[in-house]
């Protein structure tokens, strides 16, 4: 890239960053793009290396590596704040804003409501903080939202809090575990216990296996170590 090109004004989808190595400069630029555009597709980011840097001798003549990163498909902005004041959707957004801010995880919140359910989808660069180990944090957030959002209202709906498709991925994993446990229980002719999981996840296992006639399920143990047992019929 020429000197003229490197000095041109960057548009909002581009970031220039530096680092001791090209790799570090790319990482720094990517983090800045994630901060600007939560939920960005990392695979769609392209890089242009302006300088590979120079280490210098004994720290003399050191020059950092410089890169420009350009975002590909930028996520559309969240339709924040357009819910009716004090509506369940507005209450849910306010709660999630406060909780995620307390966790130190900036997120974009998209809320969808139908006749039966209120769904909040979170996107952002630090969703691991929101999801937690085995989904314990996001399950706790969902439980809290269910208890608070419809307080004082006669009509209630179920609430689902998701983070960039985590719920679907976790459901698929749990259903695979449930199927394996069922096969093991039938083959061995004895009960098979799954790992401890939340009430939300235990329900997924129970529902997934309830149509089968060769096994039955039950929850045993005490919270927070309650687990599902799969028994051959």
Task: Walk me through the structure.
The chain has 233 residues and is α+β, with helices and mostly antiparallel strands. The protein has 3 domains: 3-70, no CATH class; 88-113 and 124-157, no CATH class; 168-232, R3H-like domain (Ribosomal Protein S8, Chain: A, domain 1, 2-Layer Sandwich). It has 7 helices and 9 strands, in the order αβαββαββααβαβαββ. It has helices spanning 3-6, 22-36, 88-103, 127-131, 136-148, 166-188, 199-209, and strands at 14-19, 46-51, 65-70, 108-113, 117-123, 158-163, 192-193, 215-220, 227-232. The protein has a 3-stranded antiparallel sheet with strand order 1-3-2, covered by helices on one side. A 3-stranded mixed sheet has the order 4-5-6. Strands 7-9-8 form a 3-stranded antiparallel sheet. β4 (108-113) and β5 (117-123) form a beta hairpin. α6 packs across α7.
The value of Rg in angstroms is 24 Å
Order of helices and strands: HEHEEHEEHHEHEHEE
| Class inferred from helices and paired strands | alpha+beta
Q: Give the biggest beta sheet.
A: 3 strands, antiparallel
Basic shape: extended
Unreliable spans: 1-5
Number of separate helices: 7
- Name the strands of the widest sheet in spatial order: 1-3-2
List the quaternary state of the chains. single chain
Distance between the termini: 70 Å
Using DSSP, what is the number of strands? 9
